[in-house]
Design goal:
The chain is an all-alpha fold and about 400 residues long. The protein has one domain: Na+/H+ antiporter like fold, CATH 1.20.1530.20. The chain contains 17 helices and no strands. It is globular and about 60 Å long. The relative contact order is 0.17.
Length: about 400
C-alpha cells in the first residue's frame, strides 16, 4: 500500500507540473503578445486553476515540495537579477542605487508598517514583517518592461539595478524580523537587527563572491575553463551551492546567489572571456529557467489564495497598498535620490522612479515561505502581498510607457 500510495502521489505531482507548464506556457505567450507582465497573468491563472475554482492545482503551502520550489525558484531568480546588473552603471548612479536598495527598503517598510499597524491593529513587529515582505521591487517584471519601453538609459538602469539588489536586502531583513516575531529572542532591538543584517549580508557576499569567481574560471578561463560547454549545469550547481553554503554558516543564501549572479554576469570585468555561442547558450538557459521558476512560483501562489481571507482583508489591504504605492515609495525615492549630487536627478526622473516599483517574484516567494513556516499572521501577509503584486503590476507596469511619454523620458 505504501508503494502504491507513493506512486499515486508521484503521478499527482507530475500531472500538476504538466498542468502548470502547459497553461503557464500558453498564457505566458499571451502575456508577451499583449505586452502584459507575465507574473500578473500567472497569478490570475493560479487563482483559476486552484482548489477554490477549477481544482487542477493543489499543492499545500506548508508542503516540502512547495518549499523546494519557492527556495530554489527565488534563489535562481535572484541569481538572474544579479547577472543582469552591469557594474559600469555604478559609475554615475551607484550612490542612488545603493541607498535605494538598502536604506530605501527600510524607509519603505517603516512607512508601510505604520499603515498596517493602524489599519489591521497588528503588533508592530508583525506589521513590520508584512511591510518588509513587500518592500523590495521586482527585476523579473521590470527588466521585461524596460525592454519594451525605451526610456532614458540611466533611469532604466538605476531602477533595474535597484530591483536586482534590493531583493536580497528585503529577504534578509524579512527573516531577521521573522525570528523576533516568532519569539526567537527578547524585545525588538534595532541595533541587533541591523547587526544581524550586516553579518548575514557580509558572509553571503563573501560566499557568493568566491563561488561566482570560481564559476567564472570554470566556464570562461582560457586554460581552466573545463566546464565551458556545460555552463547551464554550472549555474544550477552553483546557485544551489551558494544558497546552502551561506545558509550553513547562518548567513543569507539569497545574498550569496545574488552576488554569485553579479560575478558571473560581469566576468568580462575580471578578465574572463566566454565564446559567443557558449554565452548565448548560458543566457538562453538562464532566461528559460527563470521564466519557468516565475511560472511555478506565481501559479502556486495564486492557487493558494484563500478567497474568504482575501475578502476579509480586501479593504484594509487596498488601503495599505495604496499608502505603500503613493506615500512610501515617493518619500523613499526623494529621500534617497536627492542627496546624490553626482547623479543630479531632475524632478521628472524622480517622479518616474516613484511610480516604477512593481512588487513581484521575491515578495511572492517570501509570502509563500512565511505561510509554510507558520509565521504570525502569515495568511494576512500573503493576502496583502498578493494585492500588492496585483495592484502594482496591473496599475504601474501597464502605465509605464504613458508616464514616460508625459515626463519626456522616452527615447527612440
Amino acid at each position: 500500500m505504501e508503494s502504491s500510495a507513493a506512486i499515486e502521489l508521484a503521478k499527482h505531482v507530475l500531472s500538476t507540473f504538466a498542468i502548470i507548464l502547459a497553461f503557464g506556457s500558453a498564457f505566458g505567450l499571451l502575456a508577451q503578445r499583449f505586452k502584459v507582465p507575465d507574473v500578473a497573468i500567472f497569478l490570475i491563472l493560479g487563482m483559476l486553476l486552484g482548489p477554490e475554482i477549477a481544482g487542477l492545482v493543489n499543492i499545500a503551502a506548508d508542503s516540502a515540495l512547495n518549499q523546494i520550489i519557492l527556495i530554489f525558484g527565488a534563489s535562481y531568480i535572484l541569481f538572474d537579477g544579479g547577472a543582469s546588473l552591469r557594474l559600469k552603471v555604478l559609475k554615475e548612479v551607484w550612490i542612488t542605487i545603493v541607498i535605494l536598495a538598502t536604506i530605501g527598503v527600510l524607509i519603505t517598510a517603516g512607512i508601510t508598517a505604520v499603515a498596517a499597524y493602524y489599519v489591521f491593529s497588528l503588533p508592530f513587529i508583525v506589521a513590520l514583517l508584512l511591510a518588509l515582505t513587500i518592500a523590495s521591487t521586482d527585476p523579473a517584471t521590470l527588466v521585461p518592461v524596460f525592454r519594451q519601453v525605451k526610456i532614458r538609459d540611466r533611469v532604466a538602469q538605476t531602477v533595474m539595478s535597484e530591483s536586482a539588489f534590493n531583493d536580497a536586502t528585503g529577504a534578509i531583513a524579512t527573516f531577521a524580523v521573522l525570528g523576533i516575531a516568532m519569539g526567537q529572542g527578547g524585545d525588538f532591538s534595532v541595533g541587533a537587527a541591523l547587526w544581524d543584517l550586516l553579518k548575514q549580508a557580509g558572509i553571503g557576499i563573501l560566499a557568493g563572491g568566491i563561488l561566482g569567481y570560481l564559476a567564472s574560471v570554470l566556464v570562461a578561463h582560457e586554460t581552466l575553463g573545463f566546464f565551458r560547454n556545460n555552463t547551464p549545469v554550472v549555474t544550477l550547481m552553483a546557485v544551489i551551492g551558494a544558497y546552502l553554503g551561506a545558509d550553513g554558516f547562518q548567513a543569507s543564501g539569497f545574498m550569496a546567489v545574488f552576488v554569485f549572479g553579479i560575478m558571473l554576469g560581469n566576468k568580462d570585468a575580471f578578465g574572463f572571456k566566454m565564446d559567443h555561442a557558449d554565452q548565448e547558450k548560458m543566457e538562453d538557459f538562464v532566461a528559460t529557467t527563470a521564466f519557468i521558476m516565475r511560472m511555478f512560483i506565481f501559479i502556486l501562489l495564486g492557487a493558494q489564495v484563500d478567497f474568504s481571507l482575501m475578502n476579509k482583508y480586501l479593504v484594509g489591504g487596498v488601503i495599505v497598498v495604496t499608502v505603500f504605492m503613493l506615500v512610501a515609495r515617493p518619500v523613499t525615492v526623494f529621500l534617497c535620490a536627492l542627496p546624490d549630487r553626482r547623479a543630479k536627478w531632475d524632478v521628472k526622473e524622480m517622479l518616474f522612479m516613484c511610480w516604477t516599483r512593481e512588487t513581484g517574484v521575491i515578495p511572492g516567494a517570501l509570502a509563500g515561505l512565511l505561510l509554510g513556516m507558520g509565521a504570525p499572521e502569515a495568511k494576512l501577509i500573503a493576502s496583502v502581498t498578493f494585492l500588492a503584486i496585483l495592484m502594482t503590476i496591473l496599475i504601474q507596469a501597464t502605465t509605464t510607457k504613458w508616464l514616460a511619454g508625459k515626463l519626456g523620458l522616452l527615447v527612440e
